[in-house]
Write a structure and sequence with these properties.
The protein is 23% helix and 14% strand. The chain has 437 residues and is an alpha/beta fold. The protein has one domain. The chain has a seven-stranded mixed β-sheet, with no helix packed on it. The relative contact order is 0.17. It is found in: Nucleus. This is RNA lariat debranching enzyme Dbr1.
């Protein structure tokens, strides 16, 4: 499958889709900071300085004035309309053809198995529950996008091969597997973190060493960096002495670059004329090796978009872009649900052995009630919740809390009851002619 990979998005969709369409990508994946702002009231849910708050392009896709021309899958970062994404903790459509992977999940797109986790690491919030509720106070505006141990344990328990893993943050220590000298030349202020071995997320390091995906794509640190992780015996890499490092060719092993033809109609195109890697299939991928690639944010002459041809590990005999839930992941969600906490204090989590026993039990339920009944397909059931962008909604408008019907449907699919059965508020603007775009 020809896959386009985008670093931080920051609400710029129109030019991105124009660029991706010229490369004929079948699937577009975005590593966070998507900024799905539906209207100006969503500014209350995003953690960015006031001077950087922009409406962006997404509101046009939410109102369906525009439809995403390419199937898009993304995870959340640390600059998101968190109030919207929190409507879909298990994942779902935020607009037609744009799928959010939730706090953590594993799905199938065609024959590719894709895992992902949203947010960034904070030791202070890591072992807390999901207590944030609107209206967010300042601390909640930050903590709502912090990765939780609950989601990390869920992903670490996944045992099937994963073709692509998507995160915003980097796994800790990933710089040890690539050209560290070049990284520090581009980002010299990373040096102290590299020396302390705390560049990146220790939680993601655990996931990397546990599920060993064939590809891992990330963003967040606003630089292009590639690495190859050899998973041998599971022992941690020998930490490099920065003073003795020499330039490595490891970064260039991910795939050969092939120049593509572009016309400089936008800064996006001008910045990425060497980033189509789809024609190289010479690398023999192995589950004992992870090819890591982090990309920059979308600015002129920055490396933030690339194209790869990715072959699946397994064949599921579905349509090319048919999206399905993964039955093992659904089993994990059911097994972990009793440990989910909506309070600051996290319910004590099970050991891995205990969790695997629970998953085995729940797998039979999923097999009987979902797989055998042909219910694995991810429905195209996007439904707007908040009002569309209009002149009547300003930055002073306090966002409401919505029950997203996709979350209700997902929980019903796996035999669980939603915590809240309140009626779903409908968008107040139903006539598109009334929308101020």
């Amino acid at each position: 499958m020809k896959v386009g990979i985008q670093g931080c998005c920051h609400g710029i969709l129109d030019n991105l889709y124009s660029l991706a369409s010229k490369h004929n990508v079948e699937l577009l994946i975005i590593g966070g900071d998507f900024q799905a702002i539906r209207n100006l009231s969503d500014f209350h849910g995003i953690s960015v300085p006031q001077k950087f708050k922009r409406l962006g392009d997404f509101h046009k896709y939410y109102s369906q004035e525009k439809i995403a021309p390419i199937l898009t899958v993304f995870v959340g970062g640390n600059h998101e309309a968190s109030n919207y994404l929190e409507e879909l903790p298990f994942g779902g459509w935020i607009a037609p053809n744009i799928y959010y992977m939730g706090r953590s999940s594993v799905i199938r797109v065609g024959n590719l198995r894709i895992g992902g986790i949203s947010g960034i690491y904070s030791e202070f919030d890591y072992r807390k529950g999901r207590y944030e509720r609107l209206p967010y106070e300042y601390k909640m505006l930050k903590s709502v996008y912090h990765t939780r141990e609950f989601d990390v344990l869920s992903l670490k328990s996944f045992r099937s091969p994963v073709d692509i893993f998507l995160s915003h943050d980097w796994p800790r220590g990933i710089e040890q597997h690539g050209d560290t000298i070049k990284l520090l030349k581009n980002k010299p202020f990373f040096r102290k973190e590299v020396e302390r071995n705390d560049l990146g997320s220790p939680a993601l390091e655990e996931i990397l060493n546990s599920i060993k995906p064939r590809h891992w794509f990330a963003a967040h640190l606003h630089t292009r960096f590639a690495a190859t992780v050899h998973h041998k015996d599971g022992s941690p890499p020998v930490h490099k002495d920065i003073s003795e490092l020499s330039h490595s060719k490891e970064e260039h092993k991910i795939t050969k670059k092939a120049r593509i033809e572009t016309t400089p109609q936008t800064d996006l195109e001008h910045a990425n004329e060497n980033n189509d890697h789809s024609n190289d299939t010479s690398q023999a991928w192995s589950t004992s090796t992870t090819q890591f690639l982090a990309l920059d944010k979308c600015l002129p002459r920055r490396s933030y978009f690339e194209v790869l041809e990715i072959d699946p590990t397994e064949s599921f005999q579905d349509g090319d872009l048919y999206m399905k839930y993964d039955p093992e992941w659904l089993s994990i969600v059911r097994a972990m649900m009793p440990f989910q906490s909506s309070l600051v204090k996290q319910t004590p989590l099970p050991s891995m052995d205990e969790l695997q026993n629970l998953i085995k039990k729940e797998r039979q339920w999923i097999e009987d009630n979902v797989v055998q009944k042909n219910k694995l397909g991810i429905l195209r059931n996007f439904t707007p919740t908040a009002p569309f962008h209009s002149s009547g909604i300003t930055e002073k408008t306090i966002p409401a809390t919505y029950v997203n019907p996709q979350t209700t449907s997902f929980l019903q699919l796996i035999g669980l009851q939603p915590e809240c059965n309140e009626p779903l508020p409908q968008p107040s603007i139903k006539n598109k002619d009334e929308i101020d775009l």
